[in-house]
Every structure is written in structure tokens, then in C-alpha cells.
């Protein structure tokens, strides 16, 4: 599905030197490598503040802590995503209230948001799934009208754009994951929180470090969630290549599209967005058999995601099957094909031909 090894080998010297420099400095926690990477992300995004933390999941939790999300508060989000969004809402005692997805973009269907707003609703958490931005203008309008916060889950969309704006800079807070397979991947866990609000930034900086500004004086409830200095040094090297990496994914997606034209419905790209193809996903007949066939040909494939979150064992007490029919339908036949920065034309040809071969027998 990914080829982080080849990607690393192409910039090995730079990465190895960056790692060694942190070791030589022995400044492992909140050292200059973290500051440097944070300031380069601020420049890249045009965001006022970018604050490193330990993972994308922590970024989501810390964002909600900074916004004073309390038990019983309702947060609007999507059931068709990785569990982290729902998990962090539930950890804080808040309630995930799902909005079903748009059948074309697989992102939150903005026309269904307002019907879910109650007096307890505090925030909207749109997830930019597969690297495609959500329709942010209507989301921001609804948030403004109902005085709700917007927390962007940009774990899969760091580098994407919506109407010329960088994803992460549109809502009140943006959350990024540097999980190794993400578009900007570390060599371990890592995450980041972005905001243009000075007060929120100051609070977030305290929360990631046990709620303190001054060591051993704790002003607010905090956690221990800092971006590791070695990861920051690695990420700072890779950030220079991020646009190139996103372009390589987009090129690969266009090549898949070319092969699949007239055979499958190729991934929808919303007008005005820069989609960065964290995943390349299509809907197919006999999906599970297709995956077995592809595997027999040496081709990996994945299902993102097989079970919508409202039907997961851990969260089913909130909802029941049938509550979010679009998500449920898409979970049945979606498949993600290998998608990364190192795909060759030969690999794409081979993968596409095997997908088409299986499909023609159905
Ligand atoms: C990966 C991911 C996360 C969590 O990020 P981690 O760094 O793995 O904690 C959250 N939301 C979405 C949509 C993701 O894809």
C-alpha cells in the first residue's frame, strides 16, 4: 500500500544527518528541532501557530480540551472515518453526533448538518477523508450562524487546499497526523495542532505539557503529548518535499483514472479543491473476492473503512444499523488500491489491469 523505504532511501543522507544532529544536541524534549519544524509548518500553511504533539489522535483530544469541551457536549462529525475522531470525543465524555456522508465525496454531507444541531452542540469536526477537503464554506457558515467551533481533522489532508486556502487554516483549529503512512509521515508517531488564535495557541501549548507554562506550576488540565525532537527533525527534512509528494500521488491517481475510464466511477474531485490523494478508493462489485484475487497476484488492497463508527462494538450504544445508510452502503463496496509517492507506471499498469480483469469476470 505504501513504500516508505524507497522514499527514505532517496533522501537518506539528509534524514540521517538530521537524526544525528538531535542526538548530538541531546535536546530531546521541546528542543530547537521542534521549534524549527513548527515555524516551517506555520510558513507552509500560512497559519499563525503550529504546535507539535505526540499524534494526530492527541491533536484532536487537545483541540477539544482547549475549546473546553465538557461531558454531555455534542460534537458533529462523520461516521465514515478512522476511529480517532469519535474516540477522542467519547474520552472527554462528549457525544459524537454523526452526519451522514455525501455519496460522491464521502465527506460529511453539509446539507444534513443543521438538522443535527441541538442546544448541546458545541463543535463541528469535519474530516477531510482520503485527502479531499470537505465543503468548508457552508460548514463555516453554519458554524457562525449557530456559534459552533470548527475543528478540522486534517490527518489525511496536510497539503490539501479548498478554494485557494490551506486545509487546517479554515476552522478554529486544525489537526494533523504524521503517522508514517500519512502524506507527511514521520518514523514513528507524531501530530500537530494549528490555529490562528493567540489565546487558543497559548492554552494548547500549556495542555501538551501538563497544563503548565512554568515548570511545576499547573494552570490548566493537561496531558503529556509533545512532538519528539527526532521526529521533528525528520519531518522538517520531509516537509520540503511535501508538495512534490502530493503531486506524485495526484499523478498516480490520474494514471489510475485513465485506466479505469468507462469501467469504474473514478474518485470525485470537488471543484475548487486541491485533492492530495492520501487514498485512491473506488467502489467495485464483489469487493471481498476482488481483494483475495488481488492478493493472489501480489497486490495489496485495503478497506477504509469496513464498519462505520456508529456500528462499531465500542460505540454502538449511541446508534443502530440503518441510522447512516450512505456510509453503510459505501462501506460495503469501497476498496483502496496502493497509493504512495513511489508508484511506477509499470506498477499502476499491473494493478489496474488485474482490477479490470477481475471486474470483467463479475
Ligand atoms: C490517522 C488518522 C488519525 C489519527 O492519527 P494518529 O497520528 O494515528 O493518531 C485521525 N483521524 C484520521 C482521519 C486519520 O486518518
Write a brief caption for the model.
By secondary structure, the protein is an alpha/beta fold. 39% of the residues lie in helices and 13% in strands.
How would you characterize the overall build of this protein?
With 362 residues, the chain is α/β, with parallel strands linked by helices. The chain folds into two domains: 4-99 and 106-239, 3-Layer(aba) Sandwich (Aspartate Aminotransferase, domain 2); 242-360, Alpha-Beta Complex (Aspartate Aminotransferase, domain 1), CATH 3.90.1150.10. The protein has twelve helices and twelve strands. The protein has helices at 4-10, 12-25, 32-45, 56-66, 84-91, 136-146, 198-207, 229-239, 242-260, 287-296, 325-333, 345-360, and strands spanning 49-53, 74-77, 95-98, 121-124, 149-153, 161-162, 165-166, 173-177, 191-195, 273-274, 280-283, 334-337. It has a seven-stranded mixed beta sheet with strand order 1-9-8-5-4-2-3, sandwiched between helices. Strands 7-6-10 form a three-stranded antiparallel beta sheet, with no helix packed on it. The protein has a two-stranded antiparallel sheet with strand order 11-12. Helix 4 (56-66) packs across helix 5 (84-91). The two termini are 24 Å apart. 44% of the residues are buried. Bound molecules: pyridoxal-5'-phosphate. The site of pyridoxal-5'-phosphate has 15 residues, from helix 4 and helix 5. Pyridoxal-5'-phosphate (PLP) binds at residues 55-57, 81-82, 84-85, 127, 153, 155-156, 177, 179, 189, 191.
Amino acid at each position: 500500500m505504501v513504500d516508505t523505504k524507497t522514499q527514505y532511501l532517496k533522501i537518506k543522507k539528509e534524514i540521517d544527518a538530521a537524526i544525528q544532529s538531535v542526538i548530538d544536541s541531546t535536546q530531546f524534549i521541546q528542543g530547537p528541532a521542534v521549534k524549527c519544524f513548527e515555524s516551517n509548518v506555520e510558513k507552509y500553511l500560512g497559519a499563525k501557530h503550529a504546535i507539535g504533539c505526540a499524534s494526530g489522535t492527541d491533536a484532536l483530544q487537545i483541540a477539544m480540551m482547549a475549546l473546553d469541551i465538557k461531558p454531555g457536549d455534542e460534537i458533529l462529525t462523520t461516521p465514515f472515518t478512522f476511529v480517532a475522531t469519535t474516540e477522542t470525543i467519547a474520552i472527554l465524555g462528549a457525544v459524537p453526533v454523526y452526519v451522514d456522508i455525501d455519496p460522491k465525496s464521502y465527506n460529511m454531507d453539509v446539507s444534513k448538518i443543521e438538522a443535527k444541531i441541538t442546544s448541546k452542540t458545541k463543535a463541528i469536526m469535519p474530516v477531510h477523508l482520503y485527502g479531499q477537503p470537505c465543503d468548508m464554506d457552508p460548514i463555516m457558515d453554519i458554524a457562525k450562524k449557530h456559534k459552533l467551533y470548527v475543528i478540522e481533522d486534517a490527518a489525511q489532508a496536510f497539503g490539501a487546499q479548498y478554494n485557494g486556502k490551506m486545509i487546517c487554516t479554515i476552522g478554529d483549529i486544525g489537526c494533523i497526523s504524521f503517522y508514517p503512512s500519512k502524506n507527511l509521515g514521520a518514523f514513528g508517531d507524531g501530530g500537530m495542532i494549528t490555529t490562528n488564535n493567540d489565546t487558543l495557541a497559548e492554552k494548547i501549548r500549556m495542555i501538551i505539557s501538563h497544563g503548565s507554562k512554568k515548570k511545576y506550576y499547573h494552570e490548566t488540565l493537561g496531558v503529556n503529548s509533545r512532538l519528539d525532537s527526532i521526529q521533528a527533525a525528520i519531518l522538517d527534512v520531509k516537509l520540503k518535499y511535501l508538495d512534490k509528494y502530493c503531486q506524485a500521488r495526484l499523478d498516480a491517481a490520474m494514471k489510475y483514472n485513465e485506466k479505469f475510464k468507462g469501467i469504474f466511477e473514478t474518485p470525485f474531485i470537488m471543484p475548487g479543491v486541491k485533492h492530495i490523494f492520501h487514498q485512491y478508493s473506488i467502489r467495485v462489485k464483489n469487493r471481498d473476492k476482488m481483494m483475495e484475487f488481488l492478493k493472489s497476484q501480489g497486490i495489496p488492497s485495503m478497506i477504509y473503512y469496513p464498519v462505520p463508527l456508529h456500528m462499531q462494538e465500542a460505540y454502538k450504544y449511541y446508534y443502530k444499523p440503518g441510522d447512516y445508510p450512505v456510509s453503510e452502503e459505501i462501506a460495503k463496496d469501497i476498496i483502496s488500491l496502493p497509493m504512495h509517492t513511489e508508484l511506477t507506471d509499470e506498477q499502476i499498469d499491473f494493478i489496474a489491469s488485474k482490477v479490470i480483469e477481475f471486474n470483467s469476470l463479475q
